[in-house]
Amino acid sequence: MSPKTRVDRFRGRVGVVAGLLLAWLATLAPALAQVEEAELSAAYLYNFSKFVHWPAAALSDSSKALVLCVYGRSGSAGEAIGALDGKFAQGHRIRVERHARGDALNDCQIVYVSDSERPYLSPLLRALANQPALTVSDIPGFVSAGGMIGLVMVDSRLRFEINRQSAEAAGLSISSQVLKLATQVVR
Asked: What is the pTM assigned to this prediction?
């Protein structure tokens, strides 16, 4: 068996296991009712970092950090997301950075947009539209505004919606296992 075939088989197995883990996390949401929404948001972000594939130029080598940028005033979500700093995803150390309105986001692979940026969402998403940065937020209507992953409450549970078209336009590929778990996928 060729090394490429072995790698492809390994990736397939990892994808299946990862999908099962994401599904398990989603079923735990009711049991974890006492866990704050911010902590669940951070857990989702961590899992997204594992199952989104960036263009090779965005994460050129394993020594490069996967940069998760928290954009705007984030409150408790920022603190929970900050706990991801130093963890690993896809062989890259995650580095969490905080950014204020107007800061350049060129080096970010993931941009979590805080609710404080709701009035400025359209220009922000236009600025990020063709960059290989996964945009995530809990702002209502985020996905329909062009964001890639919107965190939404459904039946008192934190879930997510995906704008696949926005992700693909930025050169990102979201695992089919993640797509299956979304409450809505916009094409």
From this structure: 0.80
Under 8 Å between Cβ of 109 and 133: yes
Q: How many CB atoms lie within 10 A of CB 57?
A: 8
Q: How many domains does the chain have?
A: 1
96: tokens are 């969490």
**What burial letters (b/e) apply to 19-51, b meaning 16+ CB within 10 Å?**
beebeebbeebeeeeeeeebbbbbbbbbbbbbb
Render pLDDT for 109-122 as a digit per residue (tens, 0 to 9). 999 999 999 999 99
Placement of tokens 């984030």 in the chain? 74
* 148 closest CA partner among 169, 129, 134, 138: 134
Place of tokens 């236009």: 126
Per residue in 7-42, pLDDT (tens digit) is 556 566 656 666 656 656 665 554 444 358 889 999
Which structural domain range is residue 91 located in? 3-186
CATH of residue 113's domain is 3.40.50.2300
Q: Name the one residue in this structure whose structure tokens are 């692979």.
A: 109
Per-residue CA distances from 68 to 12, 41, 46, 186 (Å): 26, 13, 10, 24
Nearest to 54 by CA among 95, 107, 126: 107
